[in-house]
Hints:
- The complex is a heterodimer.
- Helices cover 38% and strands 23% of the residues of chain A.
- Chain A has helices spanning 2-41, 83-92, 129-146, 172-179, 190-205, 256-272, 282-287, 301-308; strands at 45-46, 52-53, 66-67, 76-78, 96-104, 116-125, 153-156, 159-162, 169-171, 211-217, 226-227, 230-241, 244-251, 294-300.
- Chain B folds into 3 domains: 2-62, SH3 type barrels (Roll), CATH 2.30.30.30; 65-124, CATH 2.40.50.140; 128-185, CATH 2.40.50.140.
- In chain B, 2% of the residues lie in helices and 54% in strands.
- Chain B contains 1 helix and 16 strands.
- At the A-B interface, helix 5 of A face strand 3 of B.
Amino acid sequence: MAFAAWETLADNCKTMEISSRYRRLATRGKIIQAIRAFLSRQGFIEVQTPLMTHAPAPESSIEAFPVSQGRGRPDLFLIPSPELNLKRLLAEGFDRIFQLGPVFRQKERGRHHLPEFTMLEWYRIGADYYSLMSDCEALIETAACAAGWKGHSVVYRDRKIDISSPFPRLTVKEAFEKYAGWTPGPKPDLDRFNEDMITKIEPNLSHDKPVFLMDYPASCASLSRLKPSDPTVAERVELYAGDLELANGFSELTDPREQGDRFRREAQRRSTQGLNAYPWPEKFLSSLERLPECAGMALGIDRLVMLLTNTPDIDDVVAFPPEEG
Amino acid sequence: MYDSSDLRKGLKIILDGEPYIITDFQFSKPGKGQALYKCKLKNMITNYTMDRTYRSGDKFEPADLDEVHMQYLYKDSEGFHFMNTSTYDQVALSRDQVGETKNFLQENMEVDILFFQGTPIDISLPIFVELEVVESAPGIRGDTASGATKSVTLETGYELQVPLFIKEGEILKIDTRTGEYVERVKK
């Protein structure tokens, strides 16, 4: 009898483990459904652009996975983001679009990183990064409801986070002066900027409310427009909640010449770092001629699910981590 | 060579000529920024631990360590001597290197010796060893409360607490991870 009792207990423990995994994956599904419904109510069209591309954006900090097409044909690349494809659609005349699906980045693996992860990107024409921030506020609230949270707050890692709008907004300059004790100019030393961002800014940003960090140094945004009233900063915004960096967006750069110059600088940086050169994104750059003013945001779905299911490890919000896939 | 994207818990690398093992690892990357790799490292010779942060593009030399199955022979003023039973090669580890492990080392015992560039640096024992009690204080009469213990000395000189019923000459199973008594072995 005693042994049978132990066996039942062990079974129960196993069931509990399965049920929390079941709950997280089921909630993930509900969050995604709610986001799709929310965006479609706002007049956004869901599009599916190709997951393979000839020419990913030349960025020195993002590494695309090559895909072989067989002998004699050039490699394709899995998209690290659908950004270039979506902007090409905007240039054709689409005005509100989103894509929700997998994106791929080499060498990114940690408690908050998977080499294959799920990204939501949405774009609006005639808008700037301020509209994106309002979109984020409404979207987080919708997703939290879908995940079963009530009363405009969620609990993440033993901390109550109030998600009622508006979220506080802090410029990068203010954040560095407050938490790192220095003022980054338009072209800060990138190593120092990055290291302080990770060690001094991010851990202090968001404790009881999500926070928008905005107006990045001009050199830290390869695809965003500079602020017309202060060209030392770019109109780029990131959303943080708890210790999670949830989303990144811009008022988009629409000047093909300026974009070409920036890509050349990034391509140069890639070559100095010994990284391979990507084919030149000709189609994207020529489409910029017709790109109207617009703004777009990329939000990491896995991290949003972490926040809304109170799960500190990204491996626990996907069906299988990559090592077991 | 490893580069920083190879870093992970358990990886062994050489820093300043000495082998280190990564005991804790955290990957951080700000959006559109370079990755940082925060590591806790333990020196595999001195056990000294330290924190280091690496950037993408940093390179590391792998620490090649071999674990060799060997037999413990004897100790003398030089230290503890072991023999590879297939090649008959012998090596010695110092008292410092062997440390607390000496409490469980018995002649002819099979152990694993860790080598770094040909030099033995560490020893790992089986989880359980069986050792004889050579000295035991008699149990205190009348003390029958459950959980009561007394002190005994094993053949290696190691002293530990055991239940009152243990007698001199008996063989005990010891957990080498904790140094604690597990059970009496009937021979």
